[in-house]
Amino acid sequence: MVSWFNLGLGMIKRQIRQLPYYQFEHLAEFPQLTHAVFTRKGGVSKAPFDWLNVAFGVGDQKEAVAENRRRIMGGLAISPPVYCQQTHGDGIVIADPEMCVTPPKGDVLVTDHFGLFLAIQVADCQSVMLYDPKAGIVANIHSGWRGSVRNIIGKTVLQMQRLGSRPKNIIAGVGPSLGPCCAEFINYRKELPEAIHSYQRSENHFDFWHLSFDQLTGQGVLGDHIEQSRICTCCNSLFFSYRREKRTGRFATVIGLRKQ
Asked: How many whole angstroms separate alpha carbon 252 and alpha carbon 119?
């Protein structure tokens, strides 16, 4: 049984059995689209990866991670999704079904395959889910601060255009991530280019949520097609946060089109 309630944050919380997840209101309007932002709850991993850790490379037991991924598949009633070997770069992968077995290296997954689902792993970085309902194209972006510096979001919109998408048709959802309250960069003069300094909100703190919005609209995505969770992972213990815990798990975001 599925239950839900509106959080007033542009997101809806749903739960299947003991597995809670969020959906964006505007993406939830499309019945053929499956998308979910999972929390850390509902899995079997032990501390400090408790509970729904989906990352193999953080020190968690492989059997626990595999079971957590199976629970996500079962909860959404989907086939095994494609996961990336994320590099904190700006590599964009055009996903195909074979990648469900051999995860590609990169930080963006894009597909126009129906029945293929794309998964990103995060713990403070932004997951940005994109959907063009007219072209039938979806994308899932892992955008850390290095990806933001390289405008990985804007590059993904350009890649979707090459596949036949039009920016004005794209719907975007930006998941829970490090907020301007906690995105502290003590060495920002060395780490962040001057063009990003305008997003500084207080001493050493930066608003990457606003930057992502600008990168989307800068490529032609309409502002009212963008929903942001505005949930800071460092402040909200419902989500994994590397900034808060250092040794921790990764929560999953998933998007894909069901076969018609």
From this structure: 6
Taking the C-alpha atoms of residue 210 and residue 207, their distance in angstroms, rounded to an integer, is: 6
Q: In 3D, which of 142, 241, 146 has the Cα closest to residue 188?
A: 146
User: pLDDT truncated to tens, each residue of the chain (260 aa)?
Assistant: 333 333 335 589 999 888 999 999 999 999 999 999 999 999 999 999 999 999 999 999 999 999 999 999 999 999 999 999 999 999 999 999 989 888 999 999 999 999 999 999 999 999 999 999 999 999 999 999 999 999 999 999 999 999 999 999 999 999 999 999 999 998 898 899 999 999 999 889 999 999 999 999 999 999 999 999 999 999 999 999 999 999 999 999 999 999 87
Cβ(97)–Cβ(106) below 8 Å? no
Rg from Cα positions in the chain: 17
| CA–CA separation, 190 and 249 (whole Å) | 28
Reduce the DSSP state of residue 71 to 3 states and report it.
Answer: helix
Residue type, 248: T
Range of the domain at 183: 2-257
* Residue entry with tokens 């255009």: 161
pTM over 0.85: yes
The CATH number for 160's domain is: 3.60.140.10
Determine the straight-line distance between the first and last CA of the chain, rounded to whole angstroms.
23
What is the spatial order of strands in the sheet that 2-6 belongs to?
A: 2-6, 11-16, 19-24, 33-38, 251-257, 117-122, 82-83
Using CA atoms, how far apart are residues 253 and 250, in angstroms rounded to an integer? 10
The one-letter amino acid code at 172 reads A
Report the residue count for the chain: 260
Number of domains in the chain: 1
